[in-house]
Design a protein that fits this description.
Strands 1, 2, 3, 4, 5, 6, 7, 8 and 9 form a nine-stranded antiparallel β-sheet that branches. 25% of the residues lie in helices and 38% in strands. By secondary structure, it is an alpha+beta fold. The longest helix has 19 residues. It starts with a helix and ends with a strand. β8 and β9 form a beta hairpin. It has one domain: Lipocalin, CATH 2.40.128.270.
Length: 151
């Protein structure tokens, strides 16, 4: 009886060990975003956007913010509304997906257009350059940029 219990225990331990062992055919390396992502846990304000030869400044008194979380989430204020999205960084590639914002109407056509332009820029972002306290995000296939300052 004692030998049968020990055999059952040994068998259960072997099954547990095999079930928990990593699959040798699929090697993966896990790192947290903050270990491999220089944008994680940083906050920015938008200075200008548009094509490099015709950058557009925000209407005076308005503010657009961008905050990168450590786990692939961004949040911020897009003048009249708050927004959230998911982001992914790989080397100099930056992509935003699932960009969602509140739908409170802005006052004035120019402000409304600037907010819409910014959110659309996030959706079409492709690459970024980080230099000190300046972040430049290219969008629209690289033909336009968002220029942000670290806060």
């Amino acid at each position: 009886m004692y030998t049968l219990r020990r055999s059952k225990l040994a068998l259960l331990l072997i099954i547990a060990f095999v079930a928990c062992a990593p699959d040798s055919g699929h090697q993966t390396t896990q790192t947290t975003r903050s270990e491999s992502n220089e944008l994680a846990e940083t906050q920015w304000v938008l200075l200008s956007y548009g094509s490099p030869d015709a950058e557009i400044a925000l209407v005076e008194g308005n503010l657009i913010t961008l905050e990168f979380g450590a786990e692939g989430q961004v949040a911020g204020s897009s003048i009249c509304n708050s927004y959230v999205a998911e982001y992914d960084v790989h080397e100099d590639t930056l992509m935003f997906v699932n960009v969602t914002s509140a739908q409170i109407p802005c006052e004035g056509n120019t402000v409304t257009q600037q907010e819409a332009d910014y959110l659309q820029a996030l959706k079409s972002a492709s690459t970024f350059q980080l230099s000190g306290d300046t972040l430049i995000i290219a969008y629209n296939g690289g033909s336009a940029t968002l220029t942000l300052m670290r806060v």
